Amino acid sequence: MQLRCKEGDLALIIREEPGCESNIGRIVKVRGPVGIDAENLLASWLIKPLIRQIWKVAVVRSVSSEIVYWKSRISHPDCWLLPLRPPEPEKQSGEPQSEPEEQRDKLTAAILKLVSPELEKIR
């Protein structure tokens, strides 16, 4: 099973239970272990909002408003969460990743190669 989130991630809520749509767009912290949501049969994570505020929470066919903590044991399916992580560095096939200084030197050399004919005309 391929999951989008992992424990400790920050994630954006992109889908919600009917009646709790006001939670969409909020950021939460993801906590494991992954469980299976009994109602939806989806892999789910425990979540905790980053900002302490009133949330809409679905509770057995009704919706209540409450402040959510870890002990509230609120879970969300993995597919309803979008992890917020920095992009992974691109790896070129077969070539080791160069250091930033090397990349800067290569860029400078490429620019000088393009500009040097124009500099010769000016002199």
Alpha-beta classification: alpha+beta
N-C termini distance: 65 Å
N-to-C series of helices and strands = EEEEEEEH
Main sheet summary: 5 strands, antiparallel
Average pLDDT rating: 79
The parts where pLDDT drops under 50 for at least 5 residues are none
Number of helices: 1
Q: What would you call the shape?
A: elongated
Task: Order the strands across the largest sheet as they lie in space.
Answer: 6-3-2-1-7
**Rg over alpha carbons:** 24 Å
What does this structure look like?
The structure is a single chain. With 123 residues, this protein is an alpha+beta fold. The protein has a domain at 10-84. Helix content is 19%, strand content 33%. The chain is built from one helix and seven strands; from the N terminus they run E-E-E-E-E-E-E-H. The protein has one helix at 100-122; strands spanning 10-13, 27-36, 43-49, 54-59, 62-67, 75-77, 81-84. It has a five-stranded antiparallel β-sheet with strand order 6-3-2-1-7, with no helix packed on it. Strands 4-5 form a two-stranded antiparallel sheet. Strand 2 and strand 3 (43-49) form a beta hairpin. The longest helix is centred in the last third of the chain and has 23 residues, at 100-122. The protein starts with 9 loop residues before the first strand and ends with a helix. The model has no long low-confidence stretch (mean pLDDT 79).
